[in-house]
Amino acid sequence: MQEIFAQILLFLRGAWRYRWPALALTWLICLVGWAVVAMIPDEFEARTQVYVDTESLLKPLLEDIAVQRDVMSQVAMVQAVMLSRPNLEKVARANDLFLNAPTPLQQEKIIDDLADRVVLTSSAPRLARPRADQGGTFSVAFADNNPVVAHGVVQSLLDTFMEDSLGMKRTDSGVAQRFLQSQLSEYERKLVEAEGRLADFKKFNVGLLPGAEGDYYNRLESSIAQADQLNARYRQVSERRNELQRQLDGEEPTFGLTGPVGGDPIDAQIASYQVRIDQLKLQYTDKHPEIVAIRDTIARLEAEKAEGLRISSSVAPPASGSPSEEALARSLDMNPVYQNLRIALSQADAELAELRGQRDAQNQAVANLRGKVDAIPEVEAELLRLTRDYEVNKKQYDELLQRLESARISEQADQNTEDVKFRVIEPPVVPLAPSGPERPLLSALVLLLGLGAGLALGFVLQQVRPVFSTRDALRQVTGLPVIGAVTSAVVQGFVPWYRRQSALAGGALLALLAVFLLNVLLQDNVRAALRSLVG
Asked: How do strand 421-426 and strand 136-144 relate by DSSP bridges?
């Protein structure tokens, strides 16, 4: 640290030896620099501030119905459009900036300069939870030597900002609706074609399409199961019928020789079969196997009844007390137990006929399904493909229709309400006072530059014509030991002269500072005087 301080002290001593050339250079640089600063033209800055309010009363109501725009992104894009070349060219022509620029190259330079000098800034309110639509403040500033031009440029940019923001919203809505409408028409055409193909396929393949029972394999399995059930039921009824027949064939005619009690049971059985036929005819035609079987049973019962009546009317009772064989047979026919067995046998025969028809029909259905083992799966696969195409087109159509309705609602909301409101907080005005340049700061920089240049000149001269001020400096340069040093003795008559030299140098520095202060305080007067001198 001491060595650094010693080096600085040596530098100052060397520069002080050449103080007058250094002061002269400092004065020259300062005077010229202050004159240049004073002659710099004034700049007048025009500024405007706009608050973008994105809050809307309808926004929460239309959140899930209409399309919500990212308003801040639109505003940011409009800011970028403001500095585009076509827009800046319009601004330049509106403010007559091309009057002195007849060539395209000169106009291009003016546009580039305009883009560099326009200042756009934005700020958002500080919230605990920032939102993308919270709004913010945007400012536009422009500085020029002519205050009227500065105001005109800012006003033109402000008008462009607001017009483009509103116009972009309407343009986006119209473009979106036209695109959705074209896509909706395309998918409507595809949907109609898919519906036509599906309807034609169903008409052409009637009877081969899957129903409520499921696909082909489910229907085949269900039909086989029903056929097995009918076969099992048929075997059960057949065994019961055979058992009844054996009982009738082995019955002894030694009991129940009394007359019949009540009405004829054959008539009751025929009546029950007629009721069954009436029920079946509600669902089937007369050629249905079950109806045909029941009619055969009724015919057989009627034949038995007629035969019984014929026998009873043609045979007379014998004279003796013992009954004849015919009388015994007739008495057995009128026995209630025997009649019940006959009725049960008739019912079993009717049920067998009915089951036989159902079994044959079900077996035929199974055979038909098995015969279509190659055709039906292909039909079902094609039906599945056509149905899938139809559902995909319908889904896309419904989604596009919903989005189109959302776009229309958004357009209506845009026309009736304002998603974004522009509030001009600070309108642009013609500036009366210059905003720049910062002449006090520039003058201070010129002063520092002059002092630095003076010190640099003193250092250079000291290096050109060096002297040794200390024994350490001499020893470092020569590398020889320094035995001693002889101090200079100033004659008494030269002491006042040295003092005057020092005082004059200090006075020159103080005068330089005084001129600096006067230049800062009286800069307008200094500028006026310099302009009058320049002419």
From this structure: unpaired
